[in-house]
Amino acid sequence: MDLLLWGVLPYVSIALLVAGTLWRARYDKFGWTTHSSQLHESRLLRIGSPLFHFGMLFVVVGHVVGLLIPMSWTDALGLSDHAYHLLAVSTGAVAGVAAAVGIAILVYRRFTVPAVRRATLKSDHLMYTFLLGAMVLGLTATVLNSTGQTGGYNYREGVSVWFRGLFTLQPDHQLMAGAPLAFRLHVLFAFTLFALIPYSRLVHIFSAPLRYLFRPFVVYRKRDPELLANRQPERGWERVS
After folding, report:
1. Is 228 helix (H, G, I), strand (E, B) or coil?
2. What is the mean pLDDT of each run of 10 residues along the chain (241 residues)?
3. CA-wise closest residue to 161 among 59, 61, 66
4. Distance between the two ends of the chain, CA-based, in angstroms?
5. What is the DSSP letter of 150?
6. Do 123 and 193 form a contact (C-beta atoms < 8 A)?
7. d(C-alpha 128, C-alpha 151), whole Å
């Protein structure tokens, strides 16, 4: 069972993620959308959406640093394990709480605003379940580990080593089998969420509007009321192209 959960399931999740994304990009271009409900309600959306998206951005960056950078690298930089832990917990807690508050507002909005509730898809219920589950379990694992409830477990020597082993096709499933329950559940929910990305509105994370940052400026010209008042209407064939 440990081999299936920590040695096989991650690759199944990644395969579903890649295959589903390629399929939607090829055959479901018009369905590749966030299914925005801003027209139905915008007040709560203006609060919850930035909190969730920016909070999740920093959460993801924190996970990348914590999982992909070995302890030997931070030790070589002179950053002690205690200092690293304080930095990770302080910044991660702020980002995690912001993301949790944001998603709570968005879920509240989705189920209390009638128009938004009617626009909710069946896949949204499944997506929100695993998204909320992964977030709650991640915060729970952080709190338990920080308060010493996990017996001094160091995820950088367990979960991180196992995760990096996935890229070399040599994951040590025993490392995850020995991790505290909160960490194992958090990872299971996370990989299940990865598999659901192409089949839900979360697919829009692959459509970041980066070209918007480099687009040319749009020139707007103010209309002169006096000029418009004296302007004679032109017939179609008299217009200059």
Report:
1. helix
2. 94 95 87 81 91 92 89 84 83 89 93 90 89 92 88 90 94 94 95 93 80 68 67 61 51
3. 66
4. 72
5. T
6. no
7. 31
